[in-house]
């Protein structure tokens, strides 16, 4: 299927590795020129070069922390009129809410709620004026089924979800859609990091813990980031203009529910 977005411009946040990287690759394969953000400049440029070689599109980098005003300004300077925005940021650390102070909550909100909202604010009116826009927020399956030790993430990402639910109904008549992608367990460095706590608690090695978690998932495996990137590319496509305000769960069937 031709997604109808060749030649468009996109900002993809936290794109040097993991799910952000997969989304950037998927868009580039469709002919989208991409601007990548990430904190690690060296890793970011390495990813950018891989995408250039694989796709032939224009790839621009904007190193910086997207949770900061400076990081967002750098991304917008590199791509001031994006047609596509993929919001993404690493989640806050796990823990017990009794141990978190106000500053911990503010950092979580800055990265996982306020940064996406501010990037939407900076770009959505331009998209409306051009009569095309696709905004995809990478959130978490924990929005659908909260994970107790991820309270900071649960709170911040659910706040973003509520905001999007309202705004997305206002922009869709201008062919600007806003949707959320909710990843479950995907084969990424971050997943392995989060498995370390469970492995320790269960007296297993990280590899043993991951093997058990794969077995426990209805799909019998973890997700491949390329699958996630493909889903993102579809939501960004010309064919997704009637789909907005949705929370698309990719978890191999782990969430056992009807809604």
TrEMBL record:
Pfam families named in the record: adh_short_C2
* Keyword Nuclease part of the UniProt annotation: no
Query: What keywords does the record list, in alphabetical order?
Result: Oxidoreductase
Provide the residue span(s) of the region labelled Disordered.
Answer: 196-222
Q: What is its EC number?
A: 1.1.1.100
Q: Name one GO molecular function term.
A: 3-oxoacyl-[acyl-carrier-protein] reductase (NADPH) activity
Q: Say which domain of life the source belongs to.
A: Bacteria
**Matches recorded under SUPFAM superfamilies:** NAD(P)-binding Rossmann-fold domains
Q: What class of enzyme is it?
A: oxidoreductase
The answer on whether this UniProt entry bears the keyword Oxidoreductase reads yes
Compositional bias of kind Basic and acidic residues:
205-218
Family membership, please give it.
Belongs to the short-chain dehydrogenases/reductases (SDR) family.
- Protein name according to UniProt: 3-oxoacyl-[acyl-carrier protein] reductase
Which organism does this record belong to? Azospirillum picis
């Amino acid at each position: 299927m031709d997604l109808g977005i060749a030649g468009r411009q996109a900002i993809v946040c936290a794109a040097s590795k993991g799910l952000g990287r997969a989304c950037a690759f998927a868009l580039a394969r469709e002919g989208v020129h991409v601007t990548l953000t990430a904190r690690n400049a060296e890793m970011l440029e390495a990813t950018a070069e891989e995408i250039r070689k694989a796709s032939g599109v224009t790839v621009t980098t904007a190193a910086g922390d997207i949770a900061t005003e400076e990081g967002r300004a750098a991304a917008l300077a590199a791509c001031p009129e994006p047609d596509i925005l993929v919001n993404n940021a690493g989640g806050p650390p796990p823990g017990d809410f009794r141990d978190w102070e106000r500053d911990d909550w503010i950092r979580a909100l800055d990265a996982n709620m306020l940064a996406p909202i501010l990037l939407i604010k900076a770009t959505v009116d331009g998209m409306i004026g051009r009569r095309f826009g696709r905004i995809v927020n990478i959130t978490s399956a924990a929005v659908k089924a909260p994970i107790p030790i991820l309270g900071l993430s649960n709170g911040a990402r659910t706040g973003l979800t509520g905001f999007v639910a309202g705004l997305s109904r206002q922009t869709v008549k201008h062919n600007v859609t806003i949707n959320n992608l909710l990843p479950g367990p995907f084969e990424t460095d971050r997943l392995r990091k989060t498995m370390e706590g469970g492995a320790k608690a269960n007296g297993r090695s990280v590899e043993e813990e991951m093997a058990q978690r794969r077995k426990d998932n209805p799909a019998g495996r973890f997700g491949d980031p390329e699958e996630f990137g493909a889903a993102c590319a579809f939501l960004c496509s010309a064919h997704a203009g009637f789909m907005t305000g949705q929370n698309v769960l990719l978890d191999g069937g782990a969430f056992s529910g009807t809604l």
